[in-house]
Amino acid sequence: MRNLETALEDHDLITLRVIGEWWELDLTGADKPACIAALSERLQQIDLPLELNYLPAEEAAALQAVVQAEGQMPVGSFTRQFGEVRLMGPGRLEREEPWLAPASAAEALWYRGLIYRAYDDAEDSGNLVEYYYVPEEFSSQFPLTTHRPAAPVSSKSGLIAAQTPQSYSQATTKAVDDMTTLLTFAQRGKVETDRLNEIHPYLFDVNLERNSLLLTLAEEMDLIRATNGLLRPSRAAVDWLKQIRESQIRTLAEGWSASHWNELCRTPGIRCEGSGWENDPLLARNALLEHLPRNTDWYHVDDLVGQIKATTPDFQRPEGNYDTWYVRDVERDAYLKGYENWDLVEGRLIRFLLAGPMAWLGLIETGDGRYRLTDRALSWLQGVQLAESDVRVPIVVQPDAVVLVPFNASRYERFQVARVATPAPLRSRALSQPFTYHLTPDSLARARDDGIQTERVLEFLREASGRAIPASVKRAIERWRENGLEARLYSTVILRVRDASILDTLQSNPKTRPYIGARLGDLAAMIQTDDWREFQQVTAQLGLLLDYGA
Q1: Is the Cβ–Cβ distance between 452 and 417 less than 8 Å?
Q2: Cβ burial 280-318 (10 Å sphere, 16+ → b, else e)
Q3: pLDDT tens profile 336-368
Q4: What is the CA radius of gyration of the chain?
Q5: Which of 73, 77, 249, 335 is the most exposed place for a label (fewest CB within 10 A)?
Q6: pLDDT tens, 509-542?
Q7: How many CA atoms lie within 13 A of 540 on its CB side?
Q8: Where are the domains of the chain?
Q9: How far apart, in whole angstroms, are the C-alpha atoms of residue 90 and residue 96?
Q10: How many percent of the chain have pLDDT more than 70?
């Protein structure tokens, strides 16, 4: 924070003389250094708390706002509340004499020498932000207000509780199950940031943004690491998998609160564009969490958004400047500039934080424009632990080599099942349905390549199920160990011709030969399922029309 002499150096000589005249100093014959010295001495004699009592209400409110903001306030925020200071050169100042009829409370304080303007580094960023400030000689007169306590706004939010909606989306902990699934696929080397949709059949929630968040958390929490170009589970993943469910979801919530995953760029209805600007997602989350009432009553989302706008509107833009971001409204195809579009940017962001990450992580329940914190969210925000209990049921090994893993089985054991068996897509996205895995020659070979011997597979299945392995499964695994792959199932299309010469021609032609698989006698051959339409087009180009019989 600057002192008075430094602050006064930024003024033109004419402004210094105007300030001096206000405080009954005649500086007309003095040069600038002499004006600064005399003014500095005079202004240090001001009893600013007493002076506040004599200022007009708007000017007093403006000065108090700067003092309570720890002595400095971004120009954008201050101007929006208390008006602008018309910056003029010496010539224009002499002609217009703005101090005689100030355009705003801010301008009146400016020509009284009570507020000043300068650039400073924004907190937690390398950007220069322009501030109005009071010199340290003034701020030191308010020792109780220049260092405000960091008490959360939520302790006195003032929000009015709402009635329980007739229907609402209940909180779930499915994020734990889908994170486990991500880790199982990572173990198989099949998780890529831009190809998450390929594992959607195995996830409870197919929302791409939600699963992008889970993958980001997995990387930031060191649950997965890049190894030889692939994302693979780490030792930290094993520790997380062994936790009880409530501890796992809380760990994810803590990871989200510190994550660099940027909700603004994923908020529905808007699109972030351009370069040269950035936002801090932590600022938005912190503002929301501080304003949430610390109870499990229902509240209107509109009321929460309105309260944040009224009390801390610049939570995402500390500099108070609403003209530097390139945020496009998708529906209107127009950039959202200026504070007048706060509801379409910051307002939408707050709503997405609630309906998106907080709902995905089981921290809130929502319905009919209302929300409420869950018990786990309340305990997390208050820094206390929920009572820890976790009922875990065993896996089931069926005689047909299918392994069923109930959702409330150990996530660590499901991870281990996935190392020796192949997952099947979810038959239902209800938690009542178990996860299904198939013991196959391919899955057993993969386990062996990972260093898991057949004896260990049998031992694990017996321990995790808590009972003897069905004889058919035991014999099948042992037979694979002895003989390897003995038979294979194919999903294929059968090409059948009327004359063997047609098949001979197709098999010898360089354009159709790549599509022909194994022959099934003189009049038939196999075509890969994914290739039959292309094969049909190629043969048509050769003058042979193929019918397809479903």
Answers
A1: no
A2: bbebbbebbbbbbbeeeebbbbebbbebbbeebbbbbbb
A3: 999 999 999 999 999 999 999 999 999 999 999
A4: 35
A5: 335
A6: 999 999 998 888 889 998 888 888 888 888 888 8
A7: 10
A8: 4-139, 161-389, 396-483, 492-541
A9: 10
A10: 94
